[in-house]
Design a protein that fits this description.
Blueprint lengths: L8 H26 L3 H31 L2 H15 L4 E6 L13 E5 L10 E5 L7 E5 L2 H7 L9 H19 L6 E3 L8 E7 L6 H21 L5
Antiparallel strand pairs: 1-2, 2-3, 4-6, 5-6
Helix pairs in contact: 1-2, 3-6, 5-6
């Protein structure tokens, strides 16, 4: 079931349609070979009924698998898939320290931004993971973001550049949020100077699947906007 993307609802419909079409086609090909006698028609109807049962079980298994995952697990998996799509700038989600054992302390996980050097150890937080358990998405941008991920260089980041990029990211995330109207609130209180967007989603079972997609969409919007500001080396 892990092969099925929980933030892509269309995939479930596509798989069902494909399996259904292949099954129906096979039944009618078999009917054509055997002939169109009454007994063969009855056999075909039985086969179609069996196929419907199989598809129903398949859909039920998908839904049960999805319901067993928490909001946090689904959001985390969505960000893992986002990182796989944009490895040239994203790292994680992972703990900040290499080889960190979460059983030994209360370390924090982040989705990081980094540069496109695969051997680089430079990284800066983009999304803290723990707040996602409560439906809170924080998009973080700092001078370090520009230095580590956008090739600005340490000590050369101007306040105006940082302000411009923060505003651009904020607008991009706001645009991505538009399709989820009524399912979130934007905090106007300053959580941290690094947080450019603080979004609190109204997590419930009905919104669970869309929650993961919302986290994906908002974070991807921020990621793509950051890439637009990356300087050539």
């Amino acid at each position: 079931m892990k092969l099925i993307s929980h933030y892509n609802e269309d995939l479930e419909k596509i798989l069902t349609a494909v399996f259904g079409f292949v099954g129906i086609a096979a039944i009618f090909i078999n009917l054509d070979i055997k002939g169109y006698g009454n007994e063969n028609w009855l056999d075909a109807i039985k086969d179609i009924a069996g196929l419907i049962v199989v598809l129903a079980v398949f859909l039920a298994a998908i839904r049960i698998s999805q319901k067993s995952e928490t909001h946090y697990e689904m959001a985390r998996n969505a960000l893992q898939q986002l990182q796989a799509k944009h490895p040239q700038i994203l790292m994680g989600p992972r703990y900040n320290r290499e080889g960190y054992d979460p059983e030994k302390g209360k370390g924090l996980e982040y989705l990081f931004v980094t540069n496109d050097n695969k051997k680089s150890t430079m990284r800066t937080k983009l999304v803290p993971m723990q707040p996602l358990e409560d439906g809170d998405l924080y998009i973080c941008i700092s001078k370090q973001t520009l230095a580590d991920a956008l090739n600005y260089g340490k000590g050369t980041v101007e306040i105006q550049d940082l302000t411009t990029i923060k505003e651009a990211v904020k607008k991009a995330v706001s645009y991505a949020l538009a399709k989820y109207k009524g399912h979130y609130d934007i905090s106007t209180e300053s959580v941290s100077d690094d947080v450019v967007m603080a979004v609190s989603f109204k997590i419930n079972n009905k919104f669970k699947r869309k929650y993961a997609k919302a986290i994906y969409d908002c974070t991807e919007a921020a990621t793509i906007k950051l890439l637009e500001f990356r300087k050539p080396k």
